[in-house]
Amino acid sequence: MIPVRCFTCGKPISTAWEEFKQRREKGEDPKKILDDLNISRYCCRRMLLTHKEIIDELNPYQ
Amino acid sequence: MEIEISSLDDTLARFTLSGTSPAFANAFRRAMIGEVPTLAIENVRIYDNTSAFFDEMLAHRLGLIPIKTDLSTYSTKEKCSCGGAGCPGCMVTFTLSVEGPKTVLSSDLIPQDPHATPVYDNIPIVKLTKGQKLVIEAHAILNTGREHAKWQPTLVCGFKNHPVVSISEACDACGMCVDECPRGILAVKGKKVEVVDGKLPECSMCKLCERACLASGIGDESAITITAEADRYIFVVESDGSLPVKEIMDRALQYIRDQADELERQLGEIAGDEKK
Description:
The structure holds two protein chains of two kinds.
Chain A: H1 17-25, H2 30-36, H3 42-49, H4 55-58
Chain B: E1 2-8, E2 12-18, H1 22-34, E3 38-49, H2 55-63, E4 91-99, E5 102-105, E6 110-111, E7 124-128, E8 133-143, E9 154-167, H3 176-180, E10 186-189, E11 192-195, H4 208-215, E12 224-239, H5 245-275
Antiparallel strand pairs in B: 1-2, 2-12, 3-8, 4-6, 4-8, 5-7, 9-12, 10-11
Helix pairs in contact in B: 1-5
């Protein structure tokens, strides 16, 4: 799952994840999505850019 | 001491503080970060958790959720009349009961006080598949950022000295400094370089313009010099949404005043004792 807050500054960035994921899957430029979502600092931007969702792989093992 | 606000809304404030020492500016910054209390989930009782997450990870994620805080209705546990046992005056209880398949969101947390809701209702907590279940009771309490960063009301909270850009008569408007400035605060106007209107606070005092000026072959002394104004500070304060920025500033200043009064009282006590 996406971390609730940015590790560095503490901004709650997980609220932007769902929209970011959907728009990136449609092939939009991540830079533009992050600018649209008002995520301006590079600490917060890397949180979304570098996140890998693995919950679906973990879910079979309770 | 003067505060001049250049922009202010509930989540972000930019202002200049002038006529004070660096020590006070720093005390103000530290008070805003570490001494203004907010609500955050501290204790979690887990009745059922068949999700892929460990209980500890769930509790950790719950703790980081910012909660709207009304400081007039809640007090810290130590100051509460219940003596720290936990009552509606110092604690908010949240209940959460979700069955998969569903992504558990912060909006699934049902608070006992309808005003103390999570700031955002779409923070994902955990994704549940079919048959997985989560039943939780969480207690949020008031505390300060000094104890744990989850109680910090601020995100970005910092200050720098106000920059002063002085351009001497020796300037020949070659434009080298304009090209060099990474923030684009300089421009050639007529036969001299000038600071673009309203861009001065953005200067990071990197002094690349000074070096560019010297490299242009102007002589031994740069025509442009960057200095810092000693008793004027540019502040940026950003809130996580639990409290409006204005209240964070008010509470921080009140805290500094209370501490100063307390120091004065204690000094008076010591002096009084000596007289006896």
